[in-house]
Amino acid sequence: MNLKKIAIEKDSADDLKTFKSKFLNSPNEIYLDGNSLGKLPVESIKYLNEVINNQWGQNLIRSWNDNWLKLSEKISFKMSKLINSDNAEVLVGESTSVNLYKILYSLLNSCQFKKNLVTDCLNFPSDIYIIEGLKEYTEKKEITILNYNSNLSCNVDVLKKSIQENPGIYCLSLVTYKSSFLYPIKELNEFAENNKSIIVWDCSHAIGVIDIDVKDSKTKAAIGCTYKFLNGGPGSPSFLYVSKEILSHSQNPIKGWFGHLKPFDFENKYKPAENINKFKAGTPSVLSLVPVNTGLDLVLEAGIINIRNKSIELGEYLIKIINIELNKFDVKITSPIESKSRGSHITIQHKEAWKICKLLIKGDKNRKKIIPDFRPENNIRLGYSPLYVSFIDLYETVITIKEILENKEYLKIDDSKYEVT
Predict the structure, then answer these.
(1) How many CB atoms lie within 10 A of CB 231?
(2) Which of 259, 253, 213 is nearest to 72 (CA)?
(3) How far apart are CA 371 and CA 279, in angstroms?
(4) What span, in angstroms and rounded, lies between the C-alpha atoms of 153 and 134?
C-alpha cells in the first residue's frame, strides 16, 4: 500500500484545498495545533489594519457609532447561522470562563432545575474550576465530578445513570480536550430533558469542525471559544448560546453596562435587555472581535458539513498510517477509532512523548518543523484543521515520528528541561 500516493490523490480531490492560501503559512512547517490556536487568516491582517489605522487612528470615538457598536451583533448573527440558532439566542463576547460562570449561576438561581452541579473527569480543567467556584449556590454546597474506568472516554451508561439519580445542571465538553471523544449530544440532551436536567455544553474543541445544530440536537445552552478551529486569534472572545425556552427565566449575575435595556440612556437603575443581550456585560473588545468575524466568514464559506467530512477523512487516514508505520514502536492511539465519536484531533501516547514533541518542533535541515501539542501524561495531540491541513501533512508527520523512534533521537533531549507548552 503506497500511503504517500494515497495522500497525494486525496489532496488532489480535496474541495477545500484552496482554503490554505487564505491563511498566513510558514514555509517548511506543518501546523497540527489548530485545536489549541488556529492560524491567522490573511484577511484578518487587512481588517485589523483598517480598524487600527483608520477607525481608531483617524476616526477615533466616532467609530463606535460608525462601526463598532454593530460589530458584536454582526458576528453573533454569523455564529447563529453556524449553529442554526435564532439570532436572539446567541452572542459573542467575553471569555469562555466568564460566559460559563454567567449561565451556570443563572441556571442555579432560575428555579428551573434542581440545584445540583455535575461534571465529569473528561471536562477541561478550567471549566471544573468555574464549577467548583459555584458550589456554594448548590443545594448541598458541593459539586459532583463523575469518574469513568478511563479518563479518555465517557461511559454513557454511567452518565445517564447519574442524570436519573442526580438530576440537575450538567456541564460537559462536547469534544474532550485530551482524547477528542465526541459525546452523542442529541441523545444526551433528550435524556437530560426527560429527567428534569439540562446539559451546558462547552464546544471549544468542536465549534468550527463539528456540525453543531442546536435545534436538531435540542441543545438548550452552550459556550465555546473562537480561537481554535474558528481562527479568531489568541484570547478572542467566546460565544454564548441560550435557547429561548430558558432565556426568559434566566438573569445575568453581572449587571454590566452593555446588558442594560437602554445602555446609552445612562439610567441609575439597571434594566436588563429582553433577549440574549441581557448576558452582555462590559464594553466589547473590538480588536479581538475583528478576527472572529473573518474566521467565521471562512468557516461559513467552506461549509461546516464539508469541513466535518474532510475532518473525518483526515482522521481515518491518520489512524491508518499510525497503525501501519508506528505500531511496532509501542505507539498507542487513545482517541476513539469510530469517526462518529471523535472530534478533529487524534491523541497518541508514547513514553517519550514530550521528547518526540520537542524534536518535531525543532525540525532540522532535512525535514520540516512540525507543531503538535503535548499534554500530560505522555500524550501527543495531532490536531488537523481541515481548512489548512492536508493529507500529505499527516503522512509526513507520521513518517517523521517513525524516523525519530527508529533512530532513538529522543535520547538526545535533556530531561531536566521538561516543560508543558
Answers:
(1) 28
(2) 259
(3) 37
(4) 26
Cross-strand bridge partners of residue 200: 171, 221
Reported for 21-28, long-range contacts at CB under 8 A and 24+ positions apart, including other chains, are 22/298, 22/387, 23/231, 23/387, 23/388, 25/388, 26/369, 28/363, 28/368, 28/369
Could you tell me if 372 and 342 are in contact, meaning their C-beta atoms sit under 8 angstroms apart? no
3-state secondary structure of 210: strand
CB 309 within 8 A of CB 339: no
What crossing angle do the helices spanning 96-108 and 125-132 adopt, rounded to 10°? 40
Instruction: Residue count of the chain, please give it.
Output: 421
CA distance 197 to 189: 9
CA distance 320 to 284: 45
Per-residue pLDDT, 408: 93
Q: Which three cell numbers stand for residue 51?
A: 480598524
Contact by Cβ (8 Å): 171, 195 = no
CATH class for the region spanning 45-302: alpha beta
Reported confidence tier of residue 152, pLDDT bands at 50, 70, 90 = confident
- Stretch 343-371: mean pLDDT, rounded? 95
349: β partners: 332, 379
Encoded amino acid at 359, one letter: L
Is 418 a residue whose pLDDT tops 80?
no
pLDDT for the residue numbered 235 = 95
Could you tell me the pLDDT band of residue 366, with boundaries at 50, 70 and 90?
confident
Residues 6+ apart with CB under 8 A from 230: 38, 207, 208, 236, 292, 295, 296, 299
In the predicted model, is pLDDT for residue 419 greater than 70?
no
Round to whole Å and give the CA distance between 306 and 289: 25
Nearest to 221 by CA among 197, 248, 196, 240: 240
Per CATH, domain 3-31+303-417 is 3.30.450.40: no
Give all strands of the β-sheet with 332-333 in edge-to-edge order: 332-333, 345-349, 379-383, 373-375
- Of 291, 292, 281, the C-alpha closest to 52 is 291
All residues at 6 or more sequence positions from 68 whose CB lies less than 8 Å from its CB, including other chains: 55, 284, 286
Distance CA 10, CA 12 (A): 5
Domain ranges across the chain: 3-31+303-417, 45-302
